[in-house]
Design goal:
The complex is a heterodimer of chains A (260) and B (245). Chain A is an all-alpha fold. Chain A has one domain. Chain A is built from eleven helices and no strands. Chain B contains eight helices and nine strands. A six-stranded mixed β-sheet of chain B has the order 5-6-7-3-8-9, sandwiched between helices. Classes of the chains: A mainly alpha (260), B alpha/beta (245). At the A-B interface, α2, α5 and α11 of A face β1, α1 and α3 of B.
Chain lengths: 260, 245
């Protein structure tokens, strides 16, 4: 594992360039350009807030629904977008994979890095909302960092596995679209956990994204640190997922150029 | 030992997948059909290439030339046997691999260079040279999707040769491009030859191979069937093709 990390470090300049390529190229030839990264989730949030808060009256811990939703929606979008682009990353770079020997995980990592940049830009709106609704912030907010990092470890792990699998069977990318949609409804993004009957809540314990979203909300709105037991288990599980996926990825890597 | 590349009893087998989707795979597994078949691209290759050699590889389509190059570049792994490569390889398998159509020439130069493993500093120093060799002038700040195919290729070649590789792999790229650019490329490659860069050159142009290479190997169905002086090997190749007809 350390050997791989060292290798990635040696290729840091390329990693940076690939990420920059991803970011720069996406909104070329559009008038609003990179502003879309902020506009998209903003309007997504507005539409959802209208339906789920105004029409369906979903409760939200007594917090203004748009903010409640956004704290769940931003990390959820990060995961969904990262996995979607990671799954396609190797296929999209087929010409490079067939022609140049590089650590292939660079393609997966760089697309996810680009999505992380998007995430931070989109988060700027959340900050404005928090100020607007006068939601208090104190030092507990820094607990977001370990939770966020754990989510990233989880994302990289799944991304590597999906990218490799999609190279062999393209069904993965279509299957993923389906799974992401279902997964979102099984994650408390648009609703709080509390409205789900007690007997069904075990689902949220098995779903890492539910654990993350709950932790984010708790930290931001209740100003309490996350449950250390849950966080510890989450870190352990996510690190294991990453290590196993990375190992599988590296095992299959030699075949990539032959099957792509 | 002055060999920069050594193939030792190397064989390469490709797996030809019959099914590309689950929908096709599942019934096939159920009926006990195999998922595909193996195709041998190279068989028992023993090859030593010394520093400074200019090796030509000839053979019919599908004889394994490109696979040989891909193994040298480390893009694909051998099924059996071993391969040893010493020195920095510049893959010229396809020019402009990794160019992004929406990015400008300038952005693509840096991107492509880092793909080839060159530091940004080195590119900063050679930037003018790369641009002037490629003859793209003011188009440097235009997205490459607006380039003509000639400009695209020139830029790709210009980056690849400015890397100062120790081993240069060239796969039939010079077949395209106009006469003046071809001439320029050969001038550059001759310059490499003088600096004792090892060049591995795949071509279907027998004239070029004879003029340019110091040694030629002939591949047929994944095996090396002739190795030596360019004129001799080329003559043998032409004879075999004629006999088949």
């Amino acid at each position: 594992m350390l050997v791989y990390l060292k290798q990635i470090y040696q290729y840091r300049e390329l990693l940076w360039n690939l990420t920059a390529r991803e970011i720069k190229a996406r909104y070329k030839q559009s008038v609003l350009g990179y502003f879309w990264v902020i506009l998209n989730p903003f309007f997504q949030m507005l539409v959802m807030a209208l339906i789920f808060s105004v029409v369906m009256k979903v409760p939200s811990w007594g917090i203004p629904y748009p903010v409640f939703l956004y704290v769940g929606l931003l990390p959820w979008n990060l995961l969904a977008k990262s996995l979607e682009s990671a799954t396609n990353s190797l296929v999209n770079n087929a010409s490079l994979i067939k022609q140049i020997a590089l650590p292939r995980e660079l393609f997966v990592i760089s697309t996810i890095l680009a999505k992380i940049v998007d995430f931070f830009l989109a988060s700027s709106i959340l900050v404005l909302f928090m100020v607007f609704y006068q939601i208090p912030i104190n030092l507990t907010i820094f607990w977001l960092i370990p939770v966020f990092l754990t989510q990233l470890i989880f994302t990289f792990g799944l991304g590597l596995l999906l990218a490799a699998a999609n190279l062999f069977y393209r069904d993965i990318q279509y299957l993923l679209g389906l799974i992401i949609t279902l997964w979102m409804y099984l994650t408390p993004v648009i609703y709080p956990v509390e409205i789900v009957p007690e007997s069904y809540r075990f689902i949220f314990k098995l779903n890492p994204m539910a654990v993350f979203v709950n932790a984010y909300r708790q930290i931001v709105f209740n100003q309490t640190p996350p449950n250390f037991n849950s966080l510890g288990i989450a870190i352990l599980v996510c690190v294991i997922i990453l290590l196993v996926s990375y190992k599988i990825f590296k095992k299959l890597e030699g075949l990539f150029a032959d099957v792509v | 030992m002055n060999n920069v590349i050594e193939f030792n009893q190397l064989s390469k087998r490709y797996f030809k997948q019959n099914q590309k989707t689950f929908k096709e795979l599942l019934p096939a597994l159920f009926k006990g059909k195999s998922g595909g078949r193996f195709v041998w691209a190279l068989k028992d290759i023993d090859l030593k290439i010394a520093r400074g050699e200019t090796l030509g590889i000839i053979g019919l389509n599908g004889s394994g030339k490109t696979t040989l190059l891909k193994l040298m570049a480390g893009i694909t792994q051998p099924t059996m046997g071993k391969i040893m490569v010493k020195g920095r390889i510049s893959p010229l398998i396809e020019l402009g691999a990794g160019f992004h159509p929406e990015l400008t020439g300038r952005e693509n130069i840096y991107l492509n260079a880092s793909i080839l493993g060159i530091a940004k500093k080195a590119i900063d120093q050679n930037f003018k040279q790369i641009v002037s060799f490629a003859e793209i002038g003011e188009f440097i700040n235009t997205p490459v999707k607006f380039y003509s195919s000639g400009m695209y290729m020139r830029l790709g070649f210009s980056i690849a040769v400015n890397v100062r590789p120790e081993i240069l792999l060239v796969d039939e790229i010079l077949a395209v491009g106009d006469i003046s650019f071809k001439e320029k490329c050969f001038k550059k490659m001759n310059q490499f030859k003088k600096q004792h860069t090892t060049i591995i050159f795949i071509s279907h142009s027998m004239e070029t191979v004879v003029n340019f290479c110091s040694r030629v190997i002939l591949l047929e169905a994944g095996k090396i069937i002739a190795d030596g002086q360019p004129e001799k090997v080329v003559r043998k190749f032409i004879k075999r093709v004629a006999n088949e007809k």
